[in-house]
Amino acid sequence: MRIQTFTVGGFQVNTYLITDEATGESAIVDTGETKELVDKLSALEPAPNVTKILLTHGHIDHAGALPLLQEKWDVPTYLPKAERPLFDTLPMQGRMFGMPHLDRPCGRIDHEIEDGAEVQLGETTLRFLATPGHTPGQGCYYDDNDIIVGDTIFAGSIGRTDFPMSDPSLMVESLRRLFELPHHLRVHSGHGPMTTLADELRANPFVGYLRKEHGVPAAPSIQWAPGT
Ligand SMILES: [Zn+2]
Question: What's the gap in Å between 8 CA and the centre of ligand 1?
Fold first, then answer.
């Protein structure tokens, strides 16, 4: 699977174009909240063969431009099922962030998916892992090498759990389930640089409890240095 990153919009969200190399089929993962992603993808040559849109969660920076994308690519669109109540607030989220021009219709969801679901992209099978906490239904899409995690985890940080509809205790459990996946997975987050599960398990300050559970020593930079 080939992964291209497009960082767009006022929130500098990472959106992804993922392509099954055997067939050339592509899916767009997340949208930004502006027309920027439509413009960037439209400028690609050759034009991508977009057959699906996948959403990690229903925050405006990740799902707000869905109707703009669907004007150009009228393709099946997937949302985590438990994310529906938040997704339905998208027009209100625009007003909440002081951007009333983002009060636009939500766009169309064709498939509401649940933990363990599989999405076929050409010959690539994407699996869906529900990781609620940052939002009620946020989830991750992964194959044998890569995982796209939305705002579940970032290089050195994790998604905020102080938003309306967040749940910190669900986040603790979701991160535990995330690190049950193979640690070689490359992690593509909703904001910031790429990382791996192994690197985060070693050094991310928010998953110290998982380091202990996995018996992984902390990175040298955060180990207690005697005499200091
Ligand atoms: Zn978010």
Answer: 14
Ligand 1 centre from 84 Cα, in Å?
A: 14
Q: Which of the four CATH numbers 3.20.20.10, 3.60.15.10, 3.40.50.10860, 3.40.605.10 does domain 2-216 have?
A: 3.60.15.10
Distance CA 77, CA 111 (A): 6
Residue 166 CA to ligand 1 centre (angstroms): 10
Residue 105, pLDDT score:
86
Q: How far is the CA of 134 from the centre of ligand 1 (A)?
A: 7
pLDDT per residue as tens digits for the range 63-91: 999 999 999 999 999 999 999 999 999 98
Give the pLDDT confidence score for residue 226 in this predicted structure: 64
pLDDT one-digit tens code per residue, 202-224: 999 999 999 999 999 877 766 66
ω into residue 46 within 30 of 0, thus cis? Answer: yes
Rounded Cα–Cα distance for residues 87 and 84 (Å): 5
Cα-to-centroid distance, 210 and ligand 1 (Å): 22
59 CA distance to ligand 1 middle (Å): 5
CA of 224 to the centre of ligand 1 (A): 33
Is the entire prediction scored with pTM above 0.70? yes
DSSP label at 144? S
Do the beta carbons of residue 170 and residue 158 sit within 8 Å? no
